[in-house]
Amino acid sequence: MALHAPVHVMKDSLKRESGAKVHQANIQAAKAVADIIRTTLGPRSMLKMLLDAGGGIVVTNDGNSILREIDIAHPAAKSMIELSRTQDEEVGDGTTSVIVLAGEMLHVAQAFIDKNYHPTVICRAYTKALDDAIAVLDKIAMPVDVNDRGAMLGLVKSSIGTKFTGQFGDLIADLAIDATTTAGVDLGQGMREVDIKKYIKVEKVPGGQLEDSRVLKGVMINKDVVAPGKMRRKIVNPRIILLDCPVEYKKGENQTNAELMKEEDWQVLLEMEEEYIKNLCAQILKFKPDLVITEKGLSDLAIHYLSKAGVTAIRRLRKTDNNRIAKACGAVIVNRPEELQESDVGTGAGLFEVKKIGDEFFAFIVDCKDPKACTVLLRGASKDVLNEVERNLQDAMSVARNILKNPKLLPGGGATELTVSATLKQKSSSVEGVEKWPYEAAALAFEAIPRTLAQNCGLNVIRIMTQLQGKHANGENAWVGIDGRSGDIVDMKERKIWDSYSVKAQTFKTAIEAACMLLRIDDIVSGIKKKQAPGASAPKQPQIETEGDADNEQMIPE
Fold first, then answer.
1. H helices within 286-318, ranges in order?
2. Residue 530 CB neighbours (<10 A)
3. Would you please indicate which residues are annotated as catalytic (active-site) residues?
4. pTM to 2 decimals?
5. Homologous superfamily (CATH) for 15-143+410-520
6. Where is coiled-coil annotated (predicted)?
7. CB atoms near residue 488 (< 10 Å)
8. Is the confidence at residue 217, as pLDDT, over 80?
């Protein structure tokens, strides 16, 4: 029995060693991803220039946009990149913070892995720290009145102050607040839902100045009328009908052959087609529309009948644009002209106008009475600038949406993280058992955000962090943090540097849960076949002898 004991011990230690190696590799990969975008945190952050697969150039400091373009083979690093995308889809901001925080959580766990702490113990301590951190957020959060435009402006401005468009002051914040309040839908109990993807369209038109950008009280589409000479390009208070069916003769599902015996039958066939289209147009014209928009085709004959009746028509419109027009002017999209009713006609628009901007024609349906969809028209010097402004605007609109959804504020400038860190340090003394040390390490990891902010401002990090820790020592001065522009230690309320509660809570949850998931991986098994080197011969398949082969073999004489 004693002889076999060392074998079991050796197997166990080998297993532990391989698990520790995987943990180390995962932690190193996560730290590498965090280090890539660490310098893009804060208002004085660096920009990154990215070369994408198509050979284009992207200049940005948005964490998600940078990581999206990076091609990394390591599975743990890929998992970290996924965090940023999740954060962007969920709350639209905090994409850099979440990676920096997750990287730091894994970094402080490395010391415990080296001391043979079990990952489950570390994860238990981290989960406990997360619950306590969220409780601290609830305690220091401040309610905000969503109808107070000044407070909303301050919040959106502080969130995009770290971006490229921070230099343009209130412009982007104004656009974001106007767009989200226009497209918002009341859910009751003071809650509002805003579907940014569906009902707010950002239209980028190169040329002009950024200051010319505005939110339209309606919709703008990149289309011209179908018969420019015959149809009106400007209509005041138009009656609008929206269709998603073709106004042309129906074609057969598959190839159709018609055999005609007489020459007159051909004429009858043509007349039937004309009659069908005439009836379609008559059903539409019965409701006296000024503007007919369809997602499908519009035949020449239909255009003739509509223009003769003084109706303007637009064809082949995108489904998403048609939905936005319906929301803006109060029309209902109809599938068949026979089913049209008076209630389906949109009368909410104040003006339909086609304008030429640059080389292209754009149709505007604006001055709507109560639009539930809108278009943000962005003007700018070049496509690169416009793309970056659009990314910043998406973040700003997400922040405005989060506040409308959950109207609570937290201090920015690293003040929230410092308060959470100080509170967790105090609570760590009451945590029993081996979980006490990882819990305390998690408290220290939260300081990564203010430390990175101080670094990116070019300040003396040790001095600034010592001062901040002194101010937050007893969990007091919850609103004291770093002003990322000047590098001063100030009260965030005075400087109006705020963060949305939804963004902060989501950042903490995503970062800690991801760190726990990566810590619990103890082996990476590849299911990918290795590619064979060119010129190498293929491995021989094992051959199985059949009964016939055995019979054909020559017998060796004895």
1. 300-308
2. 6
3. 62, 95-96, 395
4. 0.76
5. GroEL-like equatorial domain (1.10.560.10)
6. none
7. 14
8. yes
